[in-house]
Amino acid sequence: MNPNPILGVLLVLGAASLWGTTGTARSLVDGSLSADWFGALRLATASAFFAACALASRRPSGTAFVGRLARHDVLGAGLCMAVYNLAFFAGIGMIGVALGTAIALGSGPIWAGLLQAVLHRQRPSAAWWSSTLVAVIGGMLMTIGGARQADGVDPAGILLCLMSGLSYAAYTLLNQRMAHAAPASTITLRAFGVAAAIALPVAWLTGGAPTFTGADLAAVAYTGVVTAGLPYLLFSLALRHITPATAVALALCEPVVAFALSVLVLGEGPAASAYFGLFLVVGGVLGVVRQELAGQRPVSCRALPRHGPSGTTSRA
User: Pairing with 49, which of 155, 208, 223, 272 sits 20 to 30 Å away (CA)?
Assistant: First the structure.
C-alpha cells in the first residue's frame, strides 16, 4: 500500500473527534465506579471490540503484510497503553482534570517528536515544531481556560501526567513500527489485551471489588467502543500513511471537540483565553498538516526494520 498522507490526516482527525467525546460522556454519568476501574474496564471493552474486528478481518483482501508481530513490540505497546491510562488517572487525581489533561495532551507531541528524532533518526522540521508548539499552547489554554485551579500543585501529579504523555508517544511509535506486519485490528487487540491484563489487577489492588450502576456500564460500553475502540483502530490505520509525531500532534484536535461539547451540551462558559486557545489549536494543526502534505515522507516508507518469521527484528 502506498502511503496517502491526506487519508492519514483524515483518519487521525476522525479519531480525535471521537476521543473528544470521552469527558462529556463521563460527565453525564453520576455513578460510583472509581477512575481506576473505569479506565481498566474501558481497556477491556476496547479489547473485546478489537477481537470482534480481528475475527471479521482475518483475510483482508488486497493487503499485503510482512512477517509477524515481534513479541517485545506487542508487550511494549501494551505496557505503554496501560501506563498511559493508569498514570493519567492518577495524575489528574492529584493536580486536577484541567491541568493534568493539559500536561498529558500537551507533552505528547513533544515526546513523539523527540522519540522519532532519536529512534527513527527522522527529525521533524523547524516549521513542524513551530506549528506543534502553537497547537500545544492553544490546547493548554483551551483545557485550563475557565477551570478553577488548586491552591497547590503536587509535583508527583505533574510527573505522572508527563509520564502519561510519554507513554502515549511511545505507544504510537511502537504501533507504527508494527503497522505493516499485521492488520490494525490485530495490533490493537494484542496491545490493548496486554494493557487490560495489567490495568485490571491494578484496579483491584487499589480499589477492591468494583461497584457500579447501569449508567456506569453504559458509559464504559460507550467509551470502550466509541472513544477507545473505533478511534484507536483509525489511529493505527493512519500510522501507515503519516509519521508518528504528526499523528500525535494532530490528536490535539481532541480538546477542540471536547470544548465544543462542553459549551453546546454541558452549558459551560469557558474563559476568553479558551477561545483564543481554540484559534491557536486550529492554526497549529493546519500548519502540521501543511508540513506533512508538503513532502515529509512517513517513516513507514523508509528503511524500517522488517520482522522475520521468528518475530525478531534487526533493530533493538
Answer: 208
Kindly report whether the global pTM for this prediction surpasses the value 0.85: no
What are the structural domain ranges in the chain? 5-57+67-298
- Three-state secondary-structure class, residue 260: helix
**Per residue in 166-218, pLDDT tens?**
999 999 999 998 988 888 999 999 999 999 999 999 999 988 888 888 888 88
Which pLDDT tens digit goes with each residue over 28-49?
666 677 878 888 999 999 999 9
Tell me which residue of 314, 305, 241, 238 sits closest to 66, measured CA to CA: 305
| Longest CA span, the chain | 57
Give SS3 for 173. helix
* CA distance from start to end of the chain: 26
String of DSSP letters for 123-152: PPPHHHHHHHHHHHHHHHHHHHTTPPPPSS
Residue 68 has pLDDT above 70, yes or no: yes
Q: Is 309 exposed, middle or buried (0-12, 13-18, 19+ CB in 10 A)?
A: exposed
